[in-house]
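writing this on my phone so excuse typos. first protein, seq and then structure
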Amino acid sequence: MEIIQTSENTLSASVVSAVINAPIEKINIADWLLNLPDAEYQRCSVNHIAAGNTVNSEGQPMSINVEYVGTALVIQHYVATEYRPDYCRMLSVSDTITAGGRSKVQVLWELKAEKIDENTSRYTNSIHATATPEFLEFISEHGISLAEAAKARQEASDAHNHEETPLFAKSIENKSLHGKYNLPF
């Protein structure tokens, strides 16, 4: 069940946009994301370790991503709750592994394309991390306040998002215009 983000559980909220040099009619974010090869995911950030696609027990498409966000190793179990050519809403209860131990964080990842003009579109990558009850207990046991955890997560998430978003946009552009991954960008 999704945890609604509030001031009592917010860890981070990062929104970054980049231009895709392709018309909106050629873009299909759902197809790009739900077929994204591991190597293409890895080249979109130095902190991306692995990615794969599967389905959950209800048959919903999933994207499994392994990455570093700051100093935490994060295993994302994204379930596609909405997926269209112009928008994907991915929700994960993610495993977060740090030097202090292991916990879980909910991550909402939204990928959106909007028309700018006949030849260009805007790609927006939104990432919202929310503390789970398990995470709140974890930081309490380690003497870390929510404000301290949120500050560290916000800085790490924002830096990560600023790196991956322009490269995701280039990858989407290549897939939209040439039907292929792993083209130069």
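second protein below, same order as before
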Amino acid sequence: MGKETKHEIVTAKRTAPKLVTKGDSNVTIHPADEDQIQRLYGMKTREAADLLLNLALNAFGQKAMEYIDLMPAMAVELEPRDAVEAMLVTQMTATHFALCSMSQKGLHAACPDVREGYERSMTRLSRTFLAQMDGLKKYRAKAQQTVRVERVTVNEGGQAIVGSVSHEGGGHGKK
């Protein structure tokens, strides 16, 4: 990885590695360089990024080989900045894929009970997806937290300050 800093890895242009399918369930990952997958996921270690991509590809199962490019493509689109975001992006993509698969199966279900089962699964998956999106949004906003005071009570003889308060040290003992 040379002398790149974490910031350079995360902000570098993200591209998806080339994925080559062989047979019904074999995928070979061909990264453009040794750090491509690490940059893709914004992760500190190459090993964790490689394992996450392998887990992500396995989430689609054997019959979904034609959709394998979706996982790395969504990492390019959503630009995870660290391991937590990379895992959330992977989970969101797998959940969305499952939701779409259930939808397709539900459309072709002949029995109303089976169709209703697919609809329940779709409802659960859509709720899960929304929760994952909310989790990613909250995680990304963690550094931007603010505290807002809704109500202040000042009793007789008390004082209140409205506005910013800062304290500069070293003022004790000055005359």
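The chain has one domain: 18-143. thats all i got for now
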